[in-house]
């Protein structure tokens, strides 16, 4: 007597719930994501064969335009908020809470301290058109240098945030100059860093191939 084979049907999977979850996650990330602040200066860096990589976070960048103007950009909203609270109190700038929050969320800036409130009151898209000569530098007297003051107090603010557990590392100092930047402008920045005892910093460049390296050869210092 032949065996009876049960009728087999094609299994069906209801993907409705999976689609709902996917769209829910997509909507969440779209609503919570923040656009990167518009940069106030475009820097075309020179090329080099250096292969050193910078960390993804905790960077304080000094930007130098091809005209020699100096800008600052620092990571971390908590640090920037702590920094501007300190600066506002020390110099009695009379900044509102809203202006301080704007500074914490802003990108790079390169203006005199007395112009900061006016710059922050502009829409983010118009800040790049604000007339500026960059952050003032005084290499004769470091106590009068606004650049030195910003860098010193930014590092202190980052250290405070590290003590409070809001950040993991202290700032990594980075100098990013345009390939057409006059050397005296770069030298001013380096002298300022030395004057405030910042003796370790990185220079940002574009990576190019090493003409002296054979194909398949490993970078120096890498194990076989």
Description:
Strands 3-2-4-5 form a four-stranded mixed beta sheet, covered by helices on one side. The chain has a two-stranded parallel sheet with strand order 1-6. α2 (77-90) crosses α3. The chain has six helices and six strands; from the N terminus they run αβββααααβαββ. The chain has one domain (47-207). By secondary structure, it is an alpha/beta fold. The N and C termini lie far apart (71 Å).
What is the gist of this entry?
This protein is of the alpha/beta class and 224 residues long. The protein has 6 helices and 6 strands.
User: What separation lies between the terminal Cα atoms?
Assistant: 71 Å
Number of helices: 6
Largest sheet: 4 strands, mixed
Task: List the strand order in the largest sheet.
Answer: 3-2-4-5
The ordered H/E elements are: HEEEHHHHEHEE
- Rg: 25 Å
Domains, number: 1
Features:
single chain; alpha/beta; two-stranded parallel sheet; 224 residues; 6 strands; disordered C terminus; four-stranded mixed beta sheet
Walk me through the topology.
Blueprint: H1 16-32, E1 47-48, E2 59-64, E3 70-74, H2 77-90, H3 97-105, H4 116-120, H5 146-163, E4 172-177, H6 183-195, E5 202-203, E6 206-207
Parallel strand pairs: 1-6, 2-4, 4-5
Antiparallel strand pairs: 2-3
